Prior knowledge:
Elements: E1 12-15, H1 23-32, E2 42-46, H2 48-52, E3 59-61, H3 68-71, E4 76-80, H4 94-113, E5 118-121, H5 126-131, H6 139-146, E6 155-160, E7 163-167, H7 177-180, H8 183-201, E8 207-211, H9 226-240, E9 244-249, H10 257-260, E10 265-268, H11 271-282, E11 287-291, E12 297-300, H12 317-335
Parallel strand pairs: 1-2, 1-5, 2-4, 3-4, 5-12, 7-10, 8-9, 8-10
Antiparallel strand pairs: 6-7, 6-11, 11-12
Helix pairs in contact: 8-9
The chain binds 1,4-dihydronicotinamide adenine dinucleotide and ligand LD2JLWAY.
Amino acid sequence: MQQVPSTLDNPIAISLGDPAGIGPEVIAKCWDHRADFNLPPFVAIGDGRALAAVWDGPIEVVDDPSEADAAFDYALPLLQLSAAESDIPGHPSVAGAHCSLDSLELAVGLARSGSASAVVTGPVAKEQLYAIGFQHPGQTEFVAERCGISPSNVVMMLAGPTLRTVPVTTHLPLRDVPDALSVQLIESRGRAALRGLQRNFGIANPRLAVSGLNPHAGEGGSLGRAEIEIIEPAIAALTAEGWHVTGPHPADTMFHDRARAKYDVALCMYHDQALIPIKALHFEEAVNVTLGLPIVRTAPDHGTAFDIAGQDRADPRPMAAAIRMAAQCAMIRTEAP
Ligand SMILES: NC(=O)C1=CN([C@@H]2O[C@H](COP(=O)(O)OP(=O)(O)OC[C@H]3O[C@@H](n4cnc5c(N)ncnc54)[C@H](O)[C@@H]3O)[C@@H](O)[C@H]2O)C=CC1
Ligand SMILES: NCC(=O)COP(=O)(O)O
């Protein structure tokens, strides 16, 4: 298990996510097992009724994150946000979607102001958020906007013990992926991933492996020209800046053990190319970390799991991994010269 620094100045802010999902349960379980999981103090943000619906442990409502440290030993500190109505686990609602957005907004604000050392976001249901007018593909882009960063300069990285992946395109229909790819976008995502590994993970000379888009990375152009026309020029531009970059690699052969040993992060062209290998290898400990932000933001790599919400079946290990990684990244950034 990763060692977590014990001396963060402020707690980690954790948004509960959708109150009808498993976010409240896994956060509560993380507090229950805070010693075993080696977790630093954190404060939950959201509707306490969602916690009480799935957990009978102690909750201490606080007015400010600075009160969380003292409470953390005996209760789960909570910054209370009340939804218009309370949800039944497994049954998402409009009120719950609004509450999940409010808690995300507050958590990000606390990290931006320095009152929290980092943000960990609980899982939200994108369908529910889109239904209430959420204009961003996901929380990644929302956090980027709130931090004043262009979405093309932040990346969603999925990190597990033996693999890190970054999708160039995130939440869009597969048929739109080829048109969304450009030399500039691949370059900026690659650069953000490399800089992010330096800044958040302390890797001085990170190695990036770039996937192709087409089968066999295009087979020399006969199975598609994206590799020749878009991906190779982006790799050349990053290499010219002095970065260690290889590819385009056929995506089907770049994730086995020996291949993974040759790079620190894989840049993939679309969501499932990046997320299938990480979830297949590391579902219990994969962390979604946003690179390129002035703050640290991580999340467990699973969703709301409405199918098991309220049944005491949710595994808290991914949330615990997200909290530990947030603490480590925050500490590395604090210590950087
Ligand atoms: N970071 C985030 O906020 C994310 C949100 N989502 C959202 O979640 C919703 C549901 O997405 P799905 O594709 O169904 O993925 P999901 O991760 O919610 O569920 C997939 C399967 O894994 C199981 N599962 C997930 N987390 C688990 C845990 N901690 N312990 C035990 N079992 C677990 C679920 O019960 C389900 O069978 C979607 O609306 C999506 O937008 C999905 C991924 C990340
Ligand atoms: N599949 C990963 C995912 O949905 C996480 O997205 P985000 O909400 O963290 O941007």
